[in-house]
Design a protein that fits this description.
By secondary structure, this protein is of the alpha/beta class. The chain has helices spanning 3-42, 71-84, 102-108, 120-124, 155-163, 175-178, 186-191, 226-254, and strands spanning 46-48, 59-63, 88-92, 111-113, 128-131, 167-173, 183-184, 198-199, 210-213.
Length: 260
């Protein structure tokens, strides 16, 4: 192949790569604008308790995880990015970053792969970290178990105790009805290498969303022994789960319908 032909092919490849980047950026912008529309007009989302998030210093926000596709993570990040004026870092499951558009969007907006310390370095630097202690099991709940928390993994509490950071309970109401899980398709989960593949409406239903932020729960002073630290983390984990469940029970009990 002639040198001139190589030059043409290399130029064409570079232009295709550039076009791919432009299309990806356009898709991410479109998704961001769609999120704005969902939050403001479609879900008519309200937030209570923003004053409970400190204006500075480390804190961990622990929320219920609900809705078949985990849309709540993107919605919460959008809400906090607008309202707090502070970056919020959220650990995400590895498969999140494999999804076209959503993966790059998440990474550019503070998401990072789940790792054992769950954002300890960000807390030590005085930042905000958001976690979903139910993990994907929160998304796998069938619709008839909506707003009943699955057991919280204590990893977030271990991190909070190590950092001496308070944990702020967050309750999200509305996501269960927006993306109800009606069943599963195991074959598709295996095909796409996903934890599960839900049967759910192709587009979120127009439920009314409410995000309630509770009062910070201080992390106990870090004990010296391993056994005591483990016990302290388990106690903090249980206290946070009780707080989130109480808020969910209160807010779902107040509403007359999910589709105001």
């Amino acid at each position: 192949m002639s040198e001139s032909m190589n030059d043409v092919l290399e130029t064409a490849a570079a232009e295709f790569r550039q076009l791919g980047k432009l299309l990806g950026a356009a898709a991410e912008t479109a998704f961001d604008r769609t999120l704005d529309w969902l939050v403001d007009d479609y879900f008519r989302l309200d937030v209570l308790g923003l004053e409970n998030v400190p204006a500075e210093g480390a804190a961990m926000l622990a929320a219920n995880h609900s809705g078949a596709w985990g849309l709540d993570a993107f919605v919460l990040h959008k809400v906090f990015a607008r309202s707090l004026g502070r970056p919020l870092r959220i650990p995400a499951a590895p498969f999140t970053f494999r999804v076209p558009v959503l993966g790059p969007y998440a990474q550019k907006n503070g998401a990072y792969p789940i790792e054992p310390t769950l954002g300890l370095e960000h807390l030590n630097a005085g930042g905000l970290v958001g976690v979903f202690p139910e993990g994907t099991s929160g998304l796998e709940k069938p619709f008839h178990e909506r707003y009943r928390l699955r057991p919280f993994s204590p990893g977030f509490a271990v991190t909070a105790v190590r950092a001496g950071a308070p944990v702020i309970p967050v309750a999200v109401v509305g996501a269960e009805e927006a993306c109800p899980k009606l069943g599963e398709v195991p074959a598709l989960a295996r095909l796409f290498d996903l934890p599960y593949f839900p049967l759910t409406p192709g587009f979120p239903l127009p439920s009314k969303w409410l995000v309630t932020i509770g009062e910070p729960i201080p992390a106990p002073v870090r004990p010296t022994s391993i056994a005591e630290r483990s016990a302290a983390a388990r106690g903090l984990c249980a206290e946070v789960q009780r707080a989130v469940q109480e808020m969910l029970d209160r807010e779902t009990g107040r509403r007359e319908t999910a589709f105001w």
